[in-house]
Amino acid sequence: MLIGQDKLRAHFDKVISSNSLPKFIILIGQRGQGRGTLAMYIAKQLKADLYVPQDKKVGDVREMIADAQALPNPRVYLLSDSEDMTNQAQNALLKLAEEPPKNVYIIMTVETDYLMLPTIVSRAKTYRLDSYNQEQLKQETDNELLLTVCTNIGQIKRLKEQDIQGIYDLCTKIIVNIKRVSAANVFNITRHIDLDNLDLFLLVLTHVMGENLQTGQITNKEINVLYNWKRVFLLKGATKQNALEMMFLEMRGA
Length: 254
What we know:
The protein is α/β, with parallel strands linked by helices. It has helices at residues 6-17, 35-46, 58-68, 87-98, 118-122, 134-137, 144-149, 153-160, 164-177, 183-186, 198-214, 220-233, 240-253; strands at residues 24-28, 49-51, 75-79, 104-110, 125-128. The protein has a five-stranded parallel beta sheet with strand order 2-3-4-1-5, covered by helices on one side. The relative contact order is 0.12.
């Protein structure tokens, strides 16, 4: 079920009914904001098959291109989290993006398009998903902490399965003590963080730092460190644990 995104849904309903849906689309939004669900909605409205490649390497893209040449029925190729694609894989996709066969539609989802090749972005129609308001978020939870921290439905769903209070308390402890611990002990912090859900930890950490900024416990320097490193975590090949350790070290010295 897709909560929100009413404007985009109405737009896609209109262009699909008029047979003017772009063949190559990039959906931009946070993880959990409904990018994949919106792509599935588009495929359903098109009465098309939805194909999600397991990997997005050069060989997988070339196989997808070969498969797309002789499709009897409409198909939507959904390339999720496309900022993970190598430049070689994106270049391989250009052939399909430039001249998509009649029954083929390509949808890429990204958090930000600045990590994508300009040649890819220039050939796509980009759409930025709308933010959620509190009433929409309340359709998923009445937990005040979740409603305060989360900005989209997907984040709420994932954090409901975890110890949100425990993550909040850990972030608070880190911020309060980061300038007091030794450099050696900074490296121990990452042992307490679930790297598989790093985006959720960073979400809560951002909220906690905002609270501490308002009370004067930290300065804008620490906030800037966090935002600079959040960009690093999106880069291809970034090692999460090493990047976190370096981020905490920089916060300690800020």
